[in-house]
Amino acid sequence: xxxxxxxxxxxxxxxxxxxxxxxxxxxxxxxxxxxxxxxxxxxxxxxxxxxxxxxxxxxxxxxxxxxxxxxxxxxxxxxxxxxxxxxxxxxxxxxxxxxxxxxxxxxxxxxxxxxxxxxxxxxxxxxxxxxxxxxxxxxxxxxxxxxxxxxxxxxxxxxxxxxxxxx
Length: 167
Known about the structure:
The chain is mainly β.
C-alpha cells in the first residue's frame, strides 16, 4: 500500500484529499474545474521555484513562490492535468521539441501532463510530470537556476519537484 501511494497519480491523491472538482472526460477543462483547481507552486532540486516570465518562458529561478510561481492545477481527464499560470492566465505548453512556454489560451495535446507523486505525506509532496506531447519528463536544467524543459526519458532528482499547495 505504501508503494502504491508513492506512485499514485495526482488524481487519486486529489480524490483522497477530497478536492471538490470532478474529473471530466472532455479535452477542455470547464470553468468550474478551473475555479475549483488547487493553486500550486513547484520547487526544483536546488530550491528555486518554477515561474512564468513576462514573455511566457518558464524557468526555475525564482527565489520565492510569488504570483509568477503559482499555477492552477486543472484536471483535463482521468489521466492528465493542465497547468494554468496565475501570472499571465495562459496554459503551460510542453512542446514536442522539449521547450516549455506558458502561452496557450486553451488546452490541447501539448498542454497535458501526467503527474505522479513520488513523495506523498501530510508533511511533504513531490511530483514528476510526464508530457503527453513527447512522452518525456519535465526537468529543471541543472536542478534549477535556468530553463524548464521537457526532454528527459527517465526521471531523477532534476525531474522531481516539491509541491506547495496554496488552497
